[in-house]
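Worked example 3 (structure in, sequence out).
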């Protein structure tokens, strides 16, 4: 079985990563100030199923890889308590 490729979606803070059904394949984010970050299977606001939630220390980064992906029926929404840099991998 071949896994479909993913494309990076640039993220800098709270907002929709994808407003339509997609596959979450991972992320790589960094925060200068530190931040609490959460990803949801939802296209808006902070409701829906939690895909990932973590705290970044000042100057910290987080990388998550999901090779087979997680299907997100409602899209992906990211919530961040402070500015972040990075991308979410969406297939």
């Amino acid at each position: 079985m071949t896994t479909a490729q993913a494309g990076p979606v640039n993220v800098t803070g709270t907002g929709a990563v994808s407003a339509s059904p997609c596959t979450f394949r991972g992320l790589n984010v960094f925060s200068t100030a530190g931040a609490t970050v959460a990803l949801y299977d939802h296209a808006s606001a902070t409701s829906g199923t939690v895909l990932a939630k973590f705290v970044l220390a000042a100057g910290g980064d987080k990388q998550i890889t999901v090779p087979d992906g997680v299907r997100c029926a409602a899209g992906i929404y990211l919530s961040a308590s402070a500015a972040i840099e990075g991308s979410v991998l969406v297939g």
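Notes: Strands lie at 7-11, 15-18, 22-31, 35-41, 49-56, 60-72, 76-80, 85-90. The radius of gyration is 12 Å.
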